[in-house]
Amino acid sequence: MKTVIIGLMAATAMMACAPAWAQSKEIAVIVKTANSNFWQNVNNGAQAAIEHLPDYTMTFQGPAAESNVADQVNMVDNAINRRVAGIVLAPSDPDALIPSVKKAWENAIPVVLIDSGLSEDGTKYYQSFLSTDNKTAGELCAKEMIERMGNEGKVAIMSYVPGVGSEIGRVGGFTDYIKANSDIEIVGPLYSQSLMATALNQTVDTLAANPDLNGIFGANEPTAAGMGRAIEQAGRAGQLTAIGFDGNQDLQDFVRDGTLDGIAVQGSFQMGDLGVQTVAKIIAGEEVDKFIDTGVVFVTKDNIDAPEAQNVLY
Fold it and tell me: What residue stretch is flagged as signal peptide (predicted)?
């Protein structure tokens, strides 16, 4: 299969001050980690889109772990030095990637963000941002939690990397909705650094320290997977309301066997697919929206085989 590097860009007033876009034929897709089914599904979407762009090639990269922010910065800087046509970037840190994205802008290399954003100081340097509306998604998970466990009790939040844009919106949306709409006590959040084994150990400890726990929320793929395994090991499946985020095979199995009551699944394939399409439009001189919502579907045992769920599961 042809490899394609894809960069995303959107028209902004600032672009009038920037030089013409670089003329390389490589589009670089740089994600938080290559070691995740979620990000590999982003790659699948990018590959599907690049098949319709015969004039371009794509490279796909990500650090060994989401916490390896310095490695991701180096990947972006190296792509700029190669004079790629564009960059599709899922920033692991909202501040650390700003200098690199600014450098890309200064070198006429369009950047489209996916999944997580940058701090406000970086807004003018990228052209489009494709993502789940993470605040809304977090609120959805909180609403589903309250409907299942009631307005009282205790819920633990198992989060991933503190300060990442998606985490701020997702966990913030969940927490704010719980506080505003119930009398539920919140435990945590605990941060797994997006490592399944860490999430498993943290969940085991949390369950042991809180035998009266009524609910638990795992805020991304590796965290929810570790959480689900810990619930099984503790013999607590079906005894508390458990909601996860993302939709790999492990999480689907946990939904089917009742370990998890539901999972909020992002359009990871769509992020890659639409990201590539957006970059192509920018390079062609078309205007694109500054923010593009790629959506989320709440998947339960009742709808897991329905088309709406199958279209986002991976």
Answer: 1-22
